[in-house]
Amino acid sequence: MDAPSRAAVIADVVGAGGGVRDVVCATANDAYLTSCRARSIAPHPTWMPVKLAEFFVAFSTVQGNLVLDPFARSNTTGTAAEWLGRRWLAIEQRAEYICGSPAA
Questions:
Q1: pLDDT tens per residue, range 18-36
Q2: How many other β-carbons are positioned within 10 Å of the β-carbon of residue 76?
Q3: Structural domain boundaries in the chain
Q4: C-alpha angle with apex 43: 53 to 72, nearest 5 degrees?
Q5: Distance CA 45, CA 94 (A)
Q6: Alpha-carbon distance values, 78 to 15, 31, 74, 86 (Å)
Q7: In angstroms, rounded to a whole number, what is the distance separating the alpha carbons of residues 83 and 85?
Q8: DSSP type of residue 41
Q9: Which residues, listed in sequence order, are joined to residue 88 by a DSSP beta bridge?
Q10: Higher model confidence: residue 66 or residue 48?
């Protein structure tokens, strides 16, 4: 399956409901939280909704680019990069946080 276009991701985030504010106020169904529950892992205390990471990855990169996240935390940036057809490199000091990533 092809990754969605930059315009499609941005339209999905900004055009849906109240825009970016609604994405930041994510629900418990976020991919990271769902993955943590499935693996019985405590989520990172400052996790970011994958939809928000998707917006920034789509806005600032194109398919095939390398996305570097030197402070990966929950690796939502890496997850978004993978879903959008980007390569990614995540660095996190504490393995237990990144283990909850849907892309891990």
A1: 555 555 555 656 778 888 8
A2: 28
A3: 6-98
A4: 45
A5: 13
A6: 23, 12, 9, 9
A7: 6
A8: -
A9: 67
A10: 66
The amino acid occupying position 68 is L
Model pTM score: 0.70
**How many Cβ atoms sit within 10 Å of the Cβ of residue 89?**
12
Report the alpha-carbon distance of residue 74 to residue 33 in Å, rounded: 9
Q: Position 62: which residue type?
A: V
Spatial distance between the Cα atoms of 42 and 80, rounded to a whole number of angstroms = 20
Annotate 18-41 with b (16+ C-beta within 10 A) or e (fewer): eeeeebeebeeebbbbebbeeeeb
The topology under which CATH files domain 6-98 is Rossmann fold (3.40.50)
Six-digit token pair at 12? 């999905």
